[in-house]
Structures are given as C-alpha cells and as structure tokens.
Amino acid sequence: MKRQIIKTSDGSTTIHLPDWDESYHSKHGAIQEAIHVFIKNGLSLFDAKPISILEIGFGTGLNAFITFLEARKNQQSVNYVGVEAYPVAADEVLQMNYVGELNAANETTVFEQMHQSEWEKPVALSEDFTLTKRQQFFHEIEDQQTFDLIYFDAFGFRVQPELWSLDIFQKMYNALKPGGILVTYAARGIIKRNMMEAGFAVEKLAGPPGKREMFRATKHQG
Known about the structure:
Blueprint: E1 4-7, E2 13-17, E3 22-23, H1 30-40, E4 51-56, H2 62-74, E5 78-83, H3 90-93, H4 98-101, H5 108-116, E6 123-126, E7 129-134, E8 147-152, H6 166-175, E9 176-184, H7 189-198, E10 201-206, E11 213-218
Parallel strand pairs: 4-5, 4-8, 5-7, 8-9
Antiparallel strand pairs: 1-2, 2-3, 6-7, 9-11, 10-11
Helix pairs in contact: 1-2, 6-7
C-alpha cells in the first residue's frame, strides 16, 4: 500500500495512506492530538504515580515518546507496552520531526532507541521508563489485569471496523486492572455500544483540534 509522509496543521509529521485516505495521526495536528487524547485525558489522571500503559498501535512511536517526556518531567515510573502488527520502516521513522517539534533534542537517542530496540524484549530507556514492543495482531492480546491505562490508537472505524469490535474491547477490558482507563480519539455510537457491552463505563469528552468529541472508558473497580 502506498505511504506518504505529510505535515499536519501543527507542523508535526505523520504517515498518510492515500488508498484508504487514512493517516496515522490527525491531519489537524499529530502532536496536538496525542497530547490532548492520551496525555491530558489519560496519563495526567494518574498524578505521576507508577503506571503500566498498553498502546494499541505503536506506529511512529509518537505517543510513546511524548509519554516518555511527560514521565521524565514528572519523575513518573512507566512500564510501556506498544503493540503493532505492521512496524513502521526505519527510513520512515527518520523522516518524523517529533524530536524537533517537541523541543526534545536532548532525547534524540531515546526516540531512535525506541525504534531500533528489539521486539518482544523489555528495554530500559531510562531508570524510570521501560518499553516493550510486541509485534502482534490486536485480537491476539491475552493480558489479564495487567495495565492501568490503554492508549487505543488503531486506524479508524471507517477503514478497519474489526479493530473496534466487541471482541477487541472485551480483550481491552480484561487487560486493564480494576479501575483502569482506556482513552481513544474515536467517538462513534457503535464504538460506545461495543465498549459498554464489554463492561466499560464510557464518557464523551471534548476532542482534540479538528474533532468535536472523543471517548474515555473506565473499568469498574471490582
């Protein structure tokens, strides 16, 4: 499938798939979207406590890198697991301008290490941040009560509805600890119904720039 590197409205880059008219991040701003959806409405709720995060769609590593920067700033301990069925090629990753756009030149080697490190093995990117990349399909996830927070960043329902099914959200529910949270940029009615049927309590929140709404789903405490 054809792939293009494009610049989004906030100046940060993403990968665009013209055959699907789908991008890895919002065309309205890749970095803005990541910070709004996953940091402001996800990570920030944990008040710098030690946290285990599962990312559905590791992709370009943007969400992982921003989480690393936030965790370092807040001296937060993070165990980060990124799941990706089709890893992004190294030459594409090198074209991403996230380090510059995030004013994170001092952490250039960390961003590179995120992509150069082996799959299926935990890698300590700092004393407080461990990354494990898993190459697997989302329907193969079998974790049980392992994570505090899930970044659900799969391709959109329009192009891959099977990634937003009841079966997938049941796996997400099972993977979370009691009281755990899932955040996603999506806000379709059918997605909310599938989340609720899996057991989640679902909130509709204001979306990132260019998108009216997003969902945050919480697993019951016990």
